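Problem: given the chain below (98 residues), write out its structure.
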Amino acid sequence: MNQMLFLGLLLILATAAFTALAIVGNLSGGPDHAVSVLGHHIATLGPLGIFCSGLALALLFCLGLAIVAGGATHHRRRTARLHRTRGPGHVAPPPPAR
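Solution.
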Protein backbone atom coordinates (compact mmCIF):
# COMPACT_ATOMS: atom_id res chain seq x y z
CA MET A 1 0.00 0.00 0.00
CA ASN A 2 1.19 3.48 -0.77
CA GLN A 3 2.74 5.30 2.23
CA MET A 4 0.60 8.42 1.73
CA LEU A 5 -2.57 6.35 1.72
CA PHE A 6 -1.47 4.55 4.87
CA LEU A 7 -0.55 7.77 6.71
CA GLY A 8 -3.79 9.44 5.67
CA LEU A 9 -5.90 6.49 6.81
CA LEU A 10 -3.96 6.35 10.07
CA LEU A 11 -4.61 10.04 10.69
CA ILE A 12 -8.31 9.65 9.89
CA LEU A 13 -8.69 6.63 12.17
CA ALA A 14 -6.74 8.25 15.01
CA THR A 15 -8.83 11.43 14.99
CA ALA A 16 -12.07 9.49 14.70
CA ALA A 17 -11.11 7.16 17.57
CA PHE A 18 -9.96 10.02 19.81
CA THR A 19 -13.15 11.99 19.12
CA ALA A 20 -15.36 8.97 19.79
CA LEU A 21 -13.53 8.13 23.05
CA ALA A 22 -13.66 11.75 24.18
CA ILE A 23 -17.41 11.98 23.51
CA VAL A 24 -18.28 8.66 25.12
CA GLY A 25 -16.16 9.29 28.20
CA ASN A 26 -17.42 12.83 28.79
CA LEU A 27 -21.20 12.74 28.57
CA SER A 28 -21.67 14.57 31.88
CA GLY A 29 -22.56 18.22 31.42
CA GLY A 30 -21.59 21.37 33.26
CA PRO A 31 -20.06 24.78 32.64
CA ASP A 32 -16.55 23.34 32.58
CA HIS A 33 -15.93 19.91 31.14
CA ALA A 34 -13.18 17.64 32.41
CA VAL A 35 -11.94 15.85 29.30
CA SER A 36 -10.65 12.34 29.93
CA VAL A 37 -9.69 9.58 27.51
CA LEU A 38 -9.23 5.99 28.67
CA GLY A 39 -9.30 7.07 32.31
CA HIS A 40 -6.64 9.78 31.96
CA HIS A 41 -7.58 13.38 32.69
CA ILE A 42 -6.37 15.55 29.82
CA ALA A 43 -7.78 19.03 30.49
CA THR A 44 -10.71 21.02 31.85
CA LEU A 45 -12.31 23.00 29.06
CA GLY A 46 -15.03 25.58 28.80
CA PRO A 47 -17.39 25.88 25.82
CA LEU A 48 -14.89 27.89 23.73
CA GLY A 49 -12.11 25.39 24.43
CA ILE A 50 -14.33 22.49 23.45
CA PHE A 51 -15.30 24.27 20.24
CA CYS A 52 -11.67 25.01 19.37
CA SER A 53 -10.55 21.44 20.09
CA GLY A 54 -13.39 20.12 17.93
CA LEU A 55 -12.31 22.47 15.17
CA ALA A 56 -8.71 21.26 15.46
CA LEU A 57 -9.82 17.61 15.28
CA ALA A 58 -11.96 18.38 12.23
CA LEU A 59 -8.97 20.03 10.53
CA LEU A 60 -6.79 16.99 11.28
CA PHE A 61 -9.49 14.73 9.88
CA CYS A 62 -9.66 16.83 6.69
CA LEU A 63 -5.86 16.74 6.43
CA GLY A 64 -6.06 12.94 6.56
CA LEU A 65 -8.67 12.95 3.80
CA ALA A 66 -6.49 15.24 1.68
CA ILE A 67 -3.48 12.97 2.16
CA VAL A 68 -5.52 9.91 1.15
CA ALA A 69 -6.89 11.70 -1.93
CA GLY A 70 -3.40 12.88 -2.93
CA GLY A 71 -1.95 9.41 -2.48
CA ALA A 72 -4.71 7.82 -4.54
CA THR A 73 -4.27 10.38 -7.31
CA HIS A 74 -0.50 9.86 -7.33
CA HIS A 75 -0.93 6.08 -7.47
CA ARG A 76 -3.47 6.33 -10.30
CA ARG A 77 -1.24 8.67 -12.35
CA ARG A 78 1.83 6.51 -11.79
CA THR A 79 -0.04 3.38 -12.87
CA ALA A 80 -1.38 5.12 -15.98
CA ARG A 81 2.12 6.38 -16.86
CA LEU A 82 3.53 2.86 -16.51
CA HIS A 83 0.82 1.47 -18.79
CA ARG A 84 1.55 4.16 -21.39
CA THR A 85 5.30 3.54 -21.41
CA ARG A 86 5.16 -0.25 -21.35
CA GLY A 87 2.25 -0.67 -23.72
CA PRO A 88 -1.10 -2.39 -23.26
CA GLY A 89 0.15 -5.95 -23.88
CA HIS A 90 3.12 -5.83 -21.52
CA VAL A 91 3.30 -8.64 -19.02
CA ALA A 92 5.39 -8.00 -15.92
CA PRO A 93 8.27 -10.43 -15.42
CA PRO A 94 7.88 -12.90 -12.54
CA PRO A 95 9.50 -11.96 -9.24
CA PRO A 96 13.01 -13.40 -8.71
CA ALA A 97 13.17 -16.75 -6.95
CA ARG A 98 14.66 -16.82 -3.46
